[in-house]
Amino acid sequence: MNNFLSFFSSIRWQDIVDISLNSYILFRFYVLFRGTNAFRVLIGIAFLWFFQRLAFSLGLIITSWAIQGITAVAALIIIVVFRNEIRSVLQTKNFKTILWGFSQKVITSPVEIIAESVFELARKHIGALIVFPANDDIEDVIQSGIPWRGIVSKEMIMSIFWHDNPVHDGAAIIHKDRITEVACILPLSHKNDLPSYYGTRHRAALGLSEATDAMVVVVSEEREAVSVAKKSEIYSVKRKEDLERQLQEHLGERPKLHQDQRKENYRIFSAALISFLFIVGVWFSFSRGLETLINFETPVEYMNRNPEVEIIDTSVNSVTLNLSGSGSLIKSMRPEQVKVKIDLGKAAVGKNSFVITAENVSLPPGILLKRVTPPVVDVILGIPVVKEVPIQVTWAGKLPGKLTLEKVKINPARITLIGGSHLLEKISTVYTEKIYLNNIYSSDKITVKLALSPSIKTAPGSSDMVTVNYVVKKK
Description:
- The chain has 475 residues and is an alpha+beta fold.
- It has four domains: 2-104 and 260-287, no CATH class; 110-251, 3-Layer(aba) Sandwich (YojJ-like (1), CATH 3.40.1700; 291-382, RNA Polymerase Alpha Subunit, Chain A, domain 2, CATH 2.170.120; 384-474, YbbR-like domain (RNA Polymerase Alpha Subunit, Chain A, domain 2), CATH 2.170.120.
- The protein is built from 13 helices and 22 strands.
- The strands form five sheets. It has a seven-stranded mixed sheet with strand order 2-4-3-1-5-6-7. A five-stranded mixed sheet has the order 13-11-8-10-14.
- β6 (225-230) and β7 (233-237) form a beta hairpin.
- The longest helix is centred in the middle third of the chain and has 29 residues, at 259-287.
- The two termini are 81 Å apart.
- The model has no long low-confidence stretch (mean pLDDT 83).
């Protein structure tokens, strides 16, 4: 669980932008080129890349090298072989469509095609007779049919009933989405109470509905009217939507107003999801697959110290961090981005041991902490006390020639120190930094710094620098 949370916390905002941008670009390639040969080859290249990375992770060096070469050649093939197809796709799109438009496929059901074709025939004054069988066999009732086997389309229906077509006077039989027969002769109705404007087509439609459970659609070329004959009844249909509904009820089909759109939306969503997962896989392969390990030394910072206590001593002043991450992230890492902080808010006077964990270490996103050396830091806290001690000069070397040190005066001669009680009680004298006698040839004065421990400070108003006046004489 901790590794899982650590992984997500290591993701940078740049990684999110990178993944989102490239996922969208890949998704746009799908939207623009789906259905083309170039897109199919591109899918093949994606699979080749996947197998190449798999071979590389398994240590199959030759296989990985061979697939990598094939992938490079295949990418070149797409550009050279399918350049005309790519150009034609891009030329038909405007800038908006390329970036974020969707070329939705218009999918029309056979019922919608038939209804639209029927009313188009009526508008153009073209008569038509179309039969939709149900459960009863109509082969024994109709005569002289010509097999057709054509898929339903508006152009097909319009051409069958066109005036100059030899089969336009007969009936066409449609079963599901196919026109099975044309130029069929239907039995005429013997009813005497039909309106006078009903012609032979209407009587034939009514005659078949009297003999079978088929539904017959009639188009009157004189009156531009559409009628439906079913169950020995014939009635007029004014709207295309009404005809679609009646055909769906007769054929036992559910309305497909939103069904095809839902399928299209599902395809779009699936393509977007696959694009995202693919780019995430590529990102993970590069950002985590090429892992680099380094050792990074950084100072330890202390926070929330009680102002009434002082840090007397620490076991170390810096720690070494063993870090991992992609080579590019490691190279871009700056020293100020790596910090180790210890919270002294709950520390007590005396010795305190702190274990350095990931919570104490601040790292750039994408960089992971593997190990800390040393893993434990000891901090000694104490209440500061004030103590005044004398100052002693630290001499080094020998005076040149026959000179001798006659007199030495230190200004100031004593210094007030502040520090932990257990440290100051051990100090009776403070020494200066070394003054080398080899460089002294005459009486003079020199300013030198006191050699103080980092845990001990001078009192306010006191300086850690003193002036040493010395007098030398010849022996």
